[in-house]
Amino acid sequence: MSALLEVRGLAKRFGGLVATDGLNLDVASGEIHALIGPNGAGKTTAIGQIAGEIRPDAGTIHLAGQDITRLGVPARVRAGMTRSFQITQVLMNASALANVALVEQVRQGHSFRLWRPAARDERLLAPARAMLERVGLGARADVAAEDLSHGERRQLELAMALATNPRLLLLDEPMAGLGTTESAAMTVLLAALKQEVSILLVEHDMDAVFALADRITVLEGGRVIAHGTPAAIRADAAVRDAYLGAA
Amino acid sequence: MRESPRQIFVLVASFALLAALPWIAGAVGRPDLVTLGSQACVMAIAAASLDLLMGRTGLPSFGHAAWLGLGAYTVGILAFHARDLGPPWDQWAVQAWAVWPLAVLVPAALAAVIGALCLRTSGISFIMITLAFAQMFFFLFVALKTYGGDDGLTLRRRSTIPGIAPRDDVAFFYVCLTALVLVLLLLRRVAASRFGTVLDGIRQNERRMMAIGLSPFPYKLAAFVLSAGIAGLAGALHVNLFRFASPDLLHWTMSGELMVMVVLGGLGSLWGAMFGAAAMVVLHAVLAQWTEHWQIVLGPILVAVVLLARRGLWGALGGK
């Protein structure tokens, strides 16, 4: 397994708070890698730096061998790495289909066309419909995002990230706010994606993490306290103390 | 942005009314109404161009009057120098087909440079920096004594349009109305295009747009330039309408008025900008006859519209 994402010595401090402290992380091609840790462990800051929204103080990030440490968010997406958001970020007054079609349009890279109407362009709509079908929103394509249920919006959020056709997905708590049934459905959906896209998964839902992850990295206080297979992590004494203890 | 049946009806009725305005003005013996109609069309073009920025892209430019003024002065200054130029330039400098496109291109070119600087900021900073640049142009034209300084610059005669007598106010009204219709149709088309879809996305959620791989800057800049060019056209019509350009056209109060027109009509609604502009022009004319402190009356009307019809006049028409 060659490393698709290579994070080395990533560091970020906000004033006196050390949010990321020499983080090393590898995501192999074809794996689901979970990043877990208690609240305030620095998971979201780490994802922010990997996605390019937060500039690290030190360290390097490589995607498929390319140094992307200095690239902005859009350039990283074009390089093959897309994030989803913990708090759903979709265009609320547009339909689910229009949201995904917009992603398709950006991916195709023809957004400087000022004349032809975009809303009836089958070159955008056909792939967008297929994507909604895949995440199980096919029947809800024409519903405005603001009228979708929370769970459906999480599916839409995933569809938008997937529509960029990434090699690596950064999923920031895809299960956030989902009920048990919805979480189970999302778990099945993510497991099915594994064939074609590698995933770095930040998640609090331990059932989902242990069901999906090939490897797990545990953060605490901005540094890695353990990494390994789910079985090894479950057995790790330090992890139990820091995090899983109560469970 | 589908128009509701009621909105389509109002649109058709409004344009029919506008098209018939010269006859109505003649029938009621008020030929000055024609000029008022021209003025409403011109301001509607300027407001619609600002709506592309404010309403569609989410960029509240507080310096839009600069482009209006630059368009006006481009026409005025070329006409001013026409007599010093040798043929064929002396003729070209007063021809609408030559000068009006320049009145679009000059503001657009300057907007490309100034926009590139302003768009490094956002929010309040963007409002302030666009205001600052516009005020720079205002003081520039106040200082340019050759072109009348703060007295303004008189246009000896309107730009030449083949087949139209320069003093024919009715014909010029139809020129303004045609320009308005073309601009609105263009902007309607742009709004529904891929480009317009991206601008919508940038307004609603710039972070998400970046996260799907879009760099917002070129699109924002393109919207800024397009909007400045259209405002320049409004400026060219404005200077022709009154045969006069003054620095007041570039003053920040004019930028403010344009913003009010957009909000009054309904932010991001395109057609709304037209109704906002018409409402302002007509209110100004009516109230100013009544009292010179006409803004005292205008203020409460604006507050009422903003509070009662949060999506502006156009939104109120659409129902819901």
Strand order of the largest sheet of chain B: 1-2
Low-confidence stretches of chain B: none
Question: Span from first to last CA of chain B?
Answer: 15 Å
Main sheet specs of chain A: 6 strands, mixed
End-to-end C-alpha gap of chain A: 32 Å
Relative strand content of chain B: under 5%
Question: What is the element string of chain A, with H for helices and E for strands?
Answer: EEEHEEHEHHHEHEHEEHH
CATH topology of the largest domain in chain A: Rossmann fold
Strand content of chain A: 25-35%
Greatest interface: A-B, 38 and 25 residues
Quaternary structure state of the chains depicted? heterodimer
Query: What's the Cα radius of gyration of chain B?
Result: 19 Å
Radius of gyration of chain A: 18 Å
Give the tally of β-strands of chain A.
Answer: 10
What is the helix tally of chain B?
15
> Which structural class is indicated by helix and strand composition of chain A?
alpha/beta
CATH class of the largest domain in chain A: Alpha Beta
CATH topology descriptor of chain B: ABC transporter involved in vitamin B12 uptake, BtuC
Total domains of chain A: 2
Averaged pLDDT of chain A, please? 90
Structure characteristics:
heterodimer; A: 247 residues; alpha/beta; Rossmann fold; 2 domains; four-stranded antiparallel beta sheet; 37% helix; globular; B: 320 residues; mainly alpha; ABC transporter involved in vitamin B12 uptake, BtuC; two-stranded antiparallel ribbon; 15 helices; 74% helix; 1% strand
